[in-house]
Design a protein that fits this description.
By secondary structure, this protein is an alpha/beta fold. It is built from 14 helices and seven strands. The longest helix is centred in the C-terminal third of the chain and has 17 residues.
């Protein structure tokens, strides 16, 4: 088994791949739709937000600061846009939504733009790359964007990782966090917990997640403390002992559950650790499809292919 040999062309150059060097012969040959300078002025009213923009949260304070700067200096870096196929003489944003929003607040009439041709997939990818490189997305927005690339364009975890410059395991972990219950997602968006907290919580039942989340927020638990809490809750749920039985629980049972959770967090999948009295045992790592198996192989062995 191996990752796809017919990989789509990556965007490893990041934002540099979006901005044309109009001084080169290659740029002149590949930008027939652009004016000679590569930059033109466009009415702000003719620009529409990217329909595939993954970012939904914009910090109001920093947006106001950018607005104040634009009122004084104007927009220094052009917006990247593409022709809107559904509305003639208008454009969709590819990169620069914060500048576009600030320009509206500053009541600008025109803004500088560079026009690029972009497919629907590129609209998603370029907006995602811009935000990921600037660390502007929260884990829920990031995971939702990755899921769009999977559902709408058939990309694998490995192909997404190649495009955004992250490891395949990082993509898998973010996708799992984006499936967390609504209360966990809301806590991430509000910066009350991190993605690491969420990954630990996903090992619990939904009912147990709600109780653990409340405890994390009330006590300000860090990720390591959260993992220990989850291990205790798992041990209690699995054993469910009576008061008399509780005294007979081996003292290392909570440690076994803690180790299981550490494995689960590191590998991003279900793990069972069974130990016997003499110290031997079995470590069972679950996978559910070829993608999971490849991801586990890379994490444990370190090779790119199996």
């Amino acid at each position: 088994m191996s990752t796809s040999t017919n990989r789509r062309r990556g965007l490893g150059r990041g934002l540099g791949a979006l901005i044309v060097d109009t001084t080169s012969p290659e740029a002149e040959a590949s930008t027939d739709s652009l004016p000679p300078s590569g930059i033109q002025s466009c009415p702000l009213a003719a620009i529409r937000p990217n329909p595939h923009q993954p970012r939904t949260q914009f910090d109001e304070e920093t947006l106001q600061e950018l607005t104040a700067s634009i009122r004084v200096h104007g927009i220094i870096q052009p917006l990247i846009v593409t022709a809107n196929p559904t509305e003639p003489h208008t454009y969709w944003l590819v990169a620069g939504e914060r500048r576009w929003r600030a320009a509206r607040l500053a009541a600008l009439q025109e803004v500088p733009i560079i026009v690029r041709e972009a497919s629907p997939q590129q609209l998603v990818e370029w907006a995602l790359i811009e935000n990921v490189q600037r660390a502007d997305l929260n884990p829920i927005e990031e995971g939702t964007a990755y899921q769009t690339l999977i559902n709408d364009f058939g990309l694998t975890h490995a192909e997404i990782a190649e495009r955004v410059g992250k490891s395949r395991s990082a993509i898998t972990n973010i996708l799992r966090v984006a499936t967390a219950p609504a209360s966990v997602q809301a806590a991430i968006v509000a910066n009350e917990i991190s993605a690491g907290h969420a990954r630990a919580l996903l090992a619990l039942s939904e009912e147990a997640i709600e109780a653990a989340l409340l405890q994390i927020k009330e006590q300000g638990l860090n990720v390591r403390q959260t993992e220990a809490l989850v291990a205790r809750l798992q041990a209690a749920a699995n054993a469910a002992p009576t008061a008399a039985e509780e005294a007979a629980i081996p003292p290392d049972q909570a440690q076994v559950a803690h180790l299981e959770n550490r494995f689960r967090t590191a590998l991003g999948t279900r793990v069972n650790l069974n130990r016997s009295a003499n110290g031997s045992g079995r470590l069972v790592i679950h996978f559910y499809n070829d993608e999971d198996l490849e991801n586990l192989y890379q994490l444990i062995i370190g090779d790119e292919e199996i």
